[in-house]
UniProtKB/TrEMBL annotation:
Family classification: Belongs to the PPR family. P subfamily.
Name of the protein: Pentatricopeptide repeat-containing protein
Biased composition (Basic residues): 461-484
Keyword Repeat: yes
Coiled-coil annotated spans: none
Keywords annotated in UniProt: Repeat
Superkingdom, natural source: Eukaryota
PPR repeats: 210-244, 287-321
Region spans: Disordered: 453-484
Gene3D superfamilies per UniProt: Tetratricopeptide repeat domain
TM helices/strands, residue ranges: none
């Protein structure tokens, strides 16, 4: 993950927070300057050294003779944060704070706190939060947003709420941004009820961003698969004059499908389609992502017929399936043994000019190898090569060992030579091509009898058993008549 070099302007940063359910990107990036000053290089070498413990680190820092400035401290942390252990970074920052005293600015404390939050180091965060409060320093709203998010992720939601309630002690205002930040953080981990409490107490501060707040609350209840509460939030949203957007409805459909996946698989399609009808009544039209949520859950329960019907209904309703839609349907077809139909779906996708990414082929080839249909996997690989996607190495690494362990060393060697000619470096060992080294495993699982065959004819053994049971019933009936 790459982060940005400098802090975003407040307005842009707040907009990004309010438009997203959670803070997904960090504020900083480690981009070393083209020419590193010698004093910065020396500090980085001391901090990132693996020799000695924390006391040895402090002894080495005491020998640093150049002028120490707040900007140099921040640069050293930024340059070594990915290499140095957080405990060494913490000791370095505390040493700098002690030596520079009040020359360290609030922004330096905030930056260090954000680095430790990114690293999810609760102890370091706790120490710096305490120092901020003790020294009467200012906590930026951006810093609070990130700290609240990480604390909730770490299961410390009580502490996140505690900091929020006492933001005045950190000279940080309780405003639209900070209220939204704590609500987003709580909802991201399913603490929707506590988030609603924050909304109730601070509604006057978030009037301008209520659609985003409702969106977060719907997400928070969906994390718990609580369809009833998620629907209640959407109803409240409508009552307040806000039309739920596509994100709200997609979140509700995911919540509904995941609940039905566990408790009522037969209700997956009808209940999801009912929500889509409701969406259309508000001029919010489902897109391929909406349908893919349903297709994903149908695939998990191996509901083949419904998956194919949903794919067909997408085309009929004017919502063009994307490659993910075709992937989800082809996957469930292959897993359930409908290889011919699965190949048709893939051909249909290619015929419509859709170009999938590598995952489409990687996953389906892996599925076919897993169900012992290597020939079908080879055919799919040819289609992949025909699309000129590239990235064939992982497929060769799957197919070559699979072919050789199945006894087809000739085809395995052919693929090896093909990959070598293309300049592809394979991860699998060449020893797999040697029959004296590679153990051949023949599939022992018998072929499954098709449903059509099993409904027409029974095995001779079952016929004999049922015939024997009928004879016994007739014999016992005749014995009863004689006794009478």
């Amino acid at each position: 993950m790459k982060f940005k070099v400098h802090m975003l302007p407040n307005s842009a940063w707040k907009r990004s927070w309010l438009q997203s359910p959670r803070l997904s990107e960090s504020l900083y990036s480690t981009l070393l300057p083209i020419s590193t000053p010698p004093q910065l290089q020396e500090l980085c070498n001391i901090v990132t050294s693996n020799v000695g413990g924390l006391d040895d680190l402090e002894l080495s820092l005491n020998k640093f003779r150049d002028s120490l400035t707040s900007s140099l401290v921040t640069q050293a942390i930024d340059s070594s944060k990915h290499e140095a252990h957080t405990r060494r970074l913490l000791r370095f920052f505390l040493w700098s704070s002690k030596n520079l005293s009040y020359n360290l600015e609030d922004k330096d404390y905030n930056y260090a706190l954000q680095v430790f939050a990114e690293k999810k180091d609760y102890t370091a965060m706790d120490i710096l939060i305490g120092d901020l409060k003790k020294e009467g320093r200012v906590m930026d709203a951006q810093t609070f947003g990130l700290v609240a998010e990480i604390l909730v992720i770490l299961g410390k939601e009580d502490e996140a709420l505690g900091i929020f309630k006492n933001l005045d002690k950190y000279k940080c205002p309780i405003d639209e941004f900070t209220v939204t930040a704590i609500i987003n953080a709580l909802c991201f981990r399913g603490h929707a009820k506590r988030a609603e409490g924050v909304v109730l107490h601070h509604k006057d501060k978030i009037i301008g961003v209520m659609p985003c707040i409702y969106r977060s609350l719907v997400y928070g209840w969906s994390v718990l698969r609580n369809v009833k509460e998620a629907r209640r939030i959407i109803q409240e949203m409508k009552s307040d004059g806000f039309i739920p957007d596509l994100i709200c409805y997609n979140t509700l459909i995911r919540c509904l499908c995941e609940r039905n996946l566990r408790n009522n698989p037969s209700g997956l399609v009808p209940e999801a389609l009912n929500v889509m009808m409701e969406m259309r009544s508000y001029k919010v039209f489902p897109i391929s992502i909406t349908y893919n949520i349903l297709l994903s859950c149908l695939g998990k329960t191996r509901r083949v017929k419904e998956s194919c019907q949903i794919l067909e209904s997408m085309e009929n309703s004017g919502c063009a399936p994307d490659w993910v839609s075709y992937y989800l349907v082809a996957r469930v077809l292959f897993l359930s043994g409908r290889f011919g139909k699965g190949k048709e779906i893939v051909d249909q996708m290619i015929g419509k000019g859709l170009v999938p990414n590598h995952k489409f082929y990687y996953s389906l080839i892996g599925v076919l190898c897993g169900v012992e249909r290597v020939n079908h996997a080879l055919e799919l690989f040819e289609k992949m090569k025909g699309s000129s996607l590239g990235g064939y190495g992982p497929v060769y690494d799957v197919l070559i060992p699979k072919l050789c362990r199945g006894g087809d060393f000739e085809k395995g060697r052919e693929l090896w030579d093909e990959a070598t000619c293309m300049g592809i470096t394979l991860q699998c060992s060449k020893d797999v091509l040697d029959p004296s080294i590679t153990k051949v495993f023949k599939p022992t699982r018998p072929e499954k009898i098709s449903l059509v065959d099993s409904s027409i004819a029974k095995s001779p053994q079952k016929v004999r058993k049922s015939g024997g049971k009928m004879k016994m019933r007739k014999k016992s009936a005749s014995m009863k008549k004689r006794k009478k």
